[in-house]
Amino acid sequence: MSDKVLLDYGSGGRASQRLISELFLKYLGNDELNRLNDAAELSLSGRLAMSTDSFTVDPIFFPGGNIGSLAVHGTVNDVAMMGAVPRYLTCGYIIEEGLPMDDLETIVASMGEAAEHAGVQIVTGDTKVVPKGAVDKIFINTTGIGEIIVDPSPGGDRARPGDAVLVSGTIGDHGLTILGTREGLDFEAKVESDSASLNHLLVRLVRELPDVHVLRDPTRGGLATTLNEITASSGVCCELVENDLPVRPEVRGGCSILGLDPLYLANEGKFLCIVPQEDADKALEIMRADPLGRDACRIGTMTDANPGKVVLVTQLGGKRLLNMLEGEQLPRIC
């Protein structure tokens, strides 16, 4: 193959077949994908969760991952937030002519590694190559499907007054990492994306605590925006305690310098967990037993005081309304 992606690789002819066999099947191959049919034959039963997402992150390589691993992690997590075991992914690539083949191989290899770690199979896909300038390097679309293992499944409309609001770890890591890498900023301490597949931890959580009310990953718009979505759906109020919010010192320092609020920065390896008050300690115990949840903590409580609102109790004891993010704080974050 050429050392750069050529338009011919998207033609559907011999070059396309070489790209598929020598690159994609090399890293993503499995019994179903290797059949190279127009569609995948899947074996699933019961209630299903399905999610689709497109990834356009800039830059495509960043500390802690790249667009390939991010695409797998993001869709696996979205399916798992429904109390489901992710099983299968589809993958579509839109690639700019001239992308270095080494970069594409690194991206595909990282997708294969991420899928293997998550225990999912990429069973069908598509590749399009567009002229230089028609797309920025590479965009990836993934769709995931999984089997729901709890009834009822967690949902944004299930939060209730008195519920404990938990988060699985520090917030803002991914957003600040992307910004720093994109702009060439040199922070004093290392900042790295938290991109990871959370499904193994989430499956353990819902199996041991089948009455988890809400699971959500606070990606674009960050923690504050996600909580606004939940309170709007449930008709309750979320009261957060500022002193309890887990933010790495390097992220807090970077946000202070740049005038950013970590509550509105994207996360790609953290999740919100809202459970009945009596289940909070058990949920934290389960989360902290996993490396991806070792910094889990309680950050607030659902109340009936201000339905549909998110209120922050500040370090000085005052209260501040946290609205949903207005505008695009940082475009192409995922």
From TrEMBL:
InterPro entries xrefs: HypE, PurM-like_C_dom, PurM-like_C_sf, PurM-like_N, PurM-like_N_sf
Residue ranges of domain PurM-like N-terminal in the record: 38-148
Regions annotated as coiled coil: none
Signal peptide: none
GO biological process: protein maturation
Residue stretches making up the PurM-like C-terminal domain: 160-311
One Pfam family matching this protein: AIRS_C
Family named by the database record: Belongs to the HypE family.
Protein's name in the database: Hydrogenase expression/formation protein HypE
Gene: hypE
